[in-house]
Every structure is written in C-alpha cells, then in structure tokens.
Amino acid sequence: MPRSAYQRLLGVIGVCIVIAILGFLVLPAVVVTIAAFNDKALLSFPPQGLSWRWFSHAIAYQDFREGFRNGVIVTLWSSTISLFVGAAFALALDRYRFRFKNVIEGVLVSPLFIPHFTVGLGFLILAAQIGVANTYMVVIVCHVILVLPFVLRSVYVSLRNLDPRFELAAASLGAPPHRVLTTVTLPLLLPGLVSGWLFAAILSFNEFTASLFVTAQRTQTLPVAMYNYVREYADPSMAALSVMYIVATAALLTFANAFLGLGKVLNVEHSR
Amino acid sequence: MVCRKYHELTRKRPRARARGHHSPVVTNQPYLRTFVTPAALCALAFIVAMAAILQYSVRAYIPGSLEPGGLTLANFAALMKPLYARVFLDTVWICFLTAFCTLIVGYPIAYALVHVSNPTAKSIVLITVVTPLFLGEVVRTYSWIIVLGNNGFINSVLLKLGVIEHPIQFMFTTFGVVVALVHVTMPVMVIMLAAALSHIDRDYQKAAESLGAGPVRAFLTVTLPLSMPGIIAGVTTAFAWTFSAFATPQLIGGGRVNMVSNLVYQLGFASFNFPFAASLCVAGLALTLVVLSALRLAARPLEKIGPH
C-alpha cells in the first residue's frame, strides 16, 4: 500500500515528538556535563573557561572516597547474596511445589511497591532493637531485600525461555540431579544470571533513600555522601562526580545490551 | 466401545511417559530445601522489619528518649491534624500528576521502541530511556537543580536570549518537583508500555486500516485499547515509585513542597520521634494500597476492552 502524504506527515510529526522527549531525557545529563567543566566555583551558563579541576577535587574528596569504598563493599556483598538467593528461589518457583510458595514470592516482590523510606525505617528500627545499627550487615541485608525482585525477575525470565528438553536429555542419559544442574541448567542460565547480578549491583550501588536511613557515618555509601555534599556545598565537584557516574552507568548498560540483550531482560522484545 | 478405550489408552500413554521422564527433575524436587530456605529467611527478615514499624506505630513517643513508651493510638490521631493531612493530600496529588504526565510522555517513546525497525536506533532509544533508572536519585535530582535553578541552564538561556527579564522560579515549586519526578518514572513506564505494545499483533491495526480507518483512528480504536493492561501497570507503578521518592522533593522542593517521605525523615532524624514516623509509614502504605486498588477497580471496565 503506498503511503499518502498525510501518513508521511504523521510519521514526521511522530519522529519529532520522540526526539523532543529523548531530548528531555538527556537534557540533565548534557547540562551537568557542561557544568562539570566550568572553571568557576559558581554555576553559570555558558561556562567561563574550561577545566578538569572539579574532577580532581571530586576524586580527592575524603567523603566521596570513603563512600565509594563502602558502596563497593555493600554492593559486592548484596548483589552476590541476592544472586544466589534469587536464582535458587527462581528455580524452585518455576519447577517445584511447596508450602507458602505464593506467600514467600509475594513478600519478596513487595519491596517493588513499598516505599523505600518505609523499608529503610523498618530495618533501622529492627537493627537498633537487636543492637546491630551502624554495621555493614544491616545495610547489606536491606539492599538484598531491595534488589531481590529484579534478580528474581531476570532469572525467572531466562528460566522460562530455557528448553526443558536439554535437561531431560541429560537426565535420561543418566546424569544425577546435581550434574544436570551444574552442567546443563546453570550454563544455559548464564546470561540471565549475569544480567541479574549486573542489575542488582547497579541498583544497590545507586540505592539512596533506604541507605540514608540504615547507614551511619562509618558505613555511608556514595549516594548518601553525595546527598550530604549537595546540601552543604554548591561547587561543581558534584557535577564532575555525576558525569563520571553517568559515563560509567551508560557504559555498563551498553555492555549489558550488547552481550545480553537488554530488551529481552526488560521484556520489551520477544526472545524467540 | 472398544474403539473408545483404545483411544483413551493411546492418549494417556504418552503423558504418563513424559511424566516418567520428568521424574528426576520435577517430581522428586531435588534440593528443594536448599533452594527455598535462603529466600524464606530473606522474606522473614523483611516481615520482621515491617512488623517493627507496625509495632512502633502504636507506641508512645517519649521526648528525649529513643525508647518508645506504652501502647497508644495517639500517633494515628495526630495524623488527622491539618498540617499532616495536608502533606498526605499533596503527596497523592503529586503522585497522580507525575503518573499521568509520565504516561503522556512515555507512550510515544514506548511506541517508537516497539515499532522502530533499525536496530541501532532501537538500542539508542532503549539506552537513553533506561539510563536514568540506573543513575540513582541523587545524581538525577542534582542534574535537575542545575537545569531548573535560578542561575540554572533554562533561566540563563532564556535571559541571554532576552525572552525573560527575571528568572522563572522553578525550584521549590510543585512544577519543578513533578518535572524531575517524571524523568525518574519514565523508564519503568516505557518498559511496561513497551512490554504491552510488543505483545499486540500488528495485523489488528493493519486490518483496521485496510477497512478504511485512518492511522489516527486505527491507533485510537485498536492499538490504544489493546495496550490498556500496560497503561494500568505503568500508571500504578509510577504512582508507587513517586510515593517512594525522597531526594527529589527534599532538594527541589526545598521544604516548600513536602511529601510523606520528607516528613518521615524529618520526624525520625530531626526530632527522633520514631513512633510517629512509623505511623506515617503505616498510613502511607495503607493509602498506597487504597489508591492502587481503586485505580485497578476504576480501570477494570477499560481493561475489558483490551485483551479478549
């Protein structure tokens, strides 16, 4: 069917709208990048003089360094724990029948809809009651709970797309369950496991609201340190740090997209 | 009779066989305990944390002490004060506004994401949309402060161009907060809409067009109603996420636009009134539940138009 001028006009308008909205989405990132290279301590547009000094200032700032270190500790622990817990449970969820299946699933998915300040306050009160406030443990447990729904989802999706005949073939050839699991199921699940871990790590490293409640001065993560900095200072160090953040995140996402197919993980494309 | 029996036999046998083959994987359920116990422990930890909030919400506040007092309902009674009721109303209003604006802005992007055939363009759209989701609230909010501030990007550009003489006040206004919040909720909305749109058979729209409907009419009467489940999922999630936002109303609202999250933080960390903060959380949860189920109920007749 030939496209009429009217249809072509609609198409052009549609493309313009989409580009405008994408512009809205990238505007803050672009502006913060410009601001980061501004030589002056006060924000102004257009910037007067360009310099890298805010980048070195941000990297040298003690609170950011400690926040980064704490963030890495918390992120590595919580994303790894949630990967093991989530992958095991996703397997059980997909194949097994057991008591309280729906209850456990419901509770583990609920942090998606429960405000993070509520989750944070809950763990803060709990930690204070059992005397573990100010420890990494409470931060890690809180993060595990918050990122678990995403791990569950990504492993569950790849389980659904897994052809059960491979496992059946292995089993019928005499492989005991643990061999089927380690030589067939887990290797086939690898993309789902990697993307689940990646999701969990990025989200945990960036988690702010709940972290603000459960971290203390000693355990504060990078977003909390950044929040405190924004409240006290107005120089572009924070812009420089934001740029590093944006570049790192976009690079990770591009990597994830190239190797794992972000669209499939997010369920916006069909995998078959 | 014989014929029927033969039929049943042949029909049943392959099924029984399949089950037999499945047995090492399915019926024995190997490692069931190992797989479920860690998750059950996590669920338990979360339940205990939520129970701690419930318990604190009905305890009395003793000024100057971190330990709560005896059982009381005074916290919930205090929620009725105009000062606090106001914050709840404002929060619900901001959540609705954000969810609605996100839907309007997110739909074209989701549509483009599903219908663009060029893989590079698709990847660019996807990564542009998804990156804000992973940036964290603080970085996003800070970036918006630079865009919206009185010396910020928009005001500087408009002043330089001579469009305005005095900076427009975006900071500390509901408008500023909602703009930043829409940016935050865009990724989830687009993901949910795109998931729904990608499951719609494109032949429906083509059928409508071949029957003489223009592209606009075909979209409004066919594609839009079919994407209703995604719209409902997107709006409810956007609502819940906005309710959860803290840094954006705190920094851009600057105390003049307050949401429940800001009040909870203030009560907890400025006046150490944890019992009242806990009761705010409980009321907030109840409110989210009520609004979300109301949204679903209201959307039910609409949803019926969607999937058959």
Task: Produce the secondary structure layout.
The complex is a heterodimer of chains A (272) and B (308).
Chain A: H1 5-36, H2 53-60, H3 62-95, H4 101-109, H5 116-130, H6 136-160, H7 164-172, H8 177-206, H9 209-214, H10 222-232, H11 237-260, H12 262-265
Chain B: H1 2-22, H2 32-57, H3 74-78, H4 82-115, H5 119-135, H6 137-148, H7 153-161, H8 174-198, H9 202-210, H10 215-226, H11 228-244, H12 247-253, H13 260-269, H14 274-305
Please work out how many helical segments of chain B DSSP would assign. Answer: 14
- Could you tell me the radius of gyration of chain A in angstroms? 23 Å
- How would you describe the shape of chain A? globular
Oligomer: heterodimer
* Tally of alpha and pi helices of chain A: 12
User: Which CATH architecture of chain A is right?
Assistant: Orthogonal Bundle
Q: Under CATH, the topology of chain A is which?
A: MetI-like fold
Residue share in helix of chain B: over 70%
Radius of gyration of chain B: 26 Å
| Principal-axis shape of chain B | globular
Outline the low-pLDDT stretches of chain A.
Answer: none
Helix share bin of chain A: over 70%
What class do helices, strands and sheet pairing of chain B give?
mainly alpha
Which structural class is indicated by helix and strand composition of chain A? mainly alpha
CATH architecture of chain B: Orthogonal Bundle
Q: What proportion of the residues of chain A form beta strands (DSSP E)?
A: under 5%
How many runs of DSSP E, i.e. beta strands of chain B?
Answer: 0
Q: Your description of this structure?
A:
The complex is a heterodimer of chains A (272) and B (308). Chain A is an all-alpha fold. Chain A has one domain: Orthogonal Bundle (MetI-like fold). Helix content of chain A is 76%, strand content 0%. In chain A, helix 1 crosses helix 11 (237-260), helix 3 packs across helix 10 and helix 7 (164-172) runs antiparallel to helix 8 (177-206). The model of chain A has no long low-confidence stretch (mean pLDDT 87). Chain B is mainly α and 308 residues long. Chain B has one domain (82-305): MetI-like (MetI-like fold). Chain B is built from 14 helices and no strands. The longest helix of chain B is centred in the first third of the chain and has 34 residues, at 82-115. The radius of gyration of chain B is 26 Å and the shape is globular. The two termini of chain B are 39 Å apart. The relative contact order of chain B is 0.11. At the A-B interface, helix 1, helix 3, helix 4, helix 5 and helix 6 of A face helix 2, helix 4, helix 5, helix 6 and helix 7 of B.
